[in-house]
Amino acid sequence: MIIESRDKVEDEYAESSCDVVCVSFLNLVDLAGSERATNTGAEDVRLKEGSHINKSLMTLGTVIKKLSEGAESQGSHFSYRDNKLTRILQPALGGNANTTIICNITLAQIHADESKSILQFASRALRVTNYVHVSEILTDAALLKRQKKEIEQLRAKLQGSHSDHLGEEIFNLRNILLQSELERERIALELEEEKKAQAE
Fold first, then answer.
1. I need a surface site. Which of 44, 154, 155, 192 has the fewest CB within 10 A?
2. In 92-104, which positions are buried (b, 16+ CB within 10 angstroms) versus exposed (e)?
3. pLDDT digits (tens, 9 = 90+) for 186-195
4. How far apart are CA 173 and CA 186, in angstroms?
């Protein structure tokens, strides 16, 4: 499902990015369980379908294992195109996506091996890192609005820093003036004392 969204603005003259469209892809995938054919008792078409499901899950497990081991940084090949499932889920595996995986297991003893493999799959999936950023489509008008807003913010910051700097300068000048007045008063007192001493 492709979802496009934009900010709802009541005032058409408001300075906002109303022309910015955020685009998202929502994938909801229900992965079938990886049961053994001997345990399911499936035959004919069901057996064939089960083998295809297990093959898809095996390919997905291989891709996630490589991603969790950091094989991408080593330039290893990933078999995304080997299976429709991994091809659909490619953006969700180490790409630009928020991914949630829910793994279900059973406590039944006969499915202990499947439960163990699912837990291993889940622990590998936890180590896969996605790099998420917002996907936006900007019109020229929206880009100009955004740049104008950024310029105004920078101007306000610059003026604020100037006013802070000027305030600091004024404070320093006042201190210097106060010190010079105190010095002048001290000199005046010393002169008066000298005059008194000369008069005596």
1. 44
2. bbbeebeeeeeee
3. 888 888 888 8
4. 20
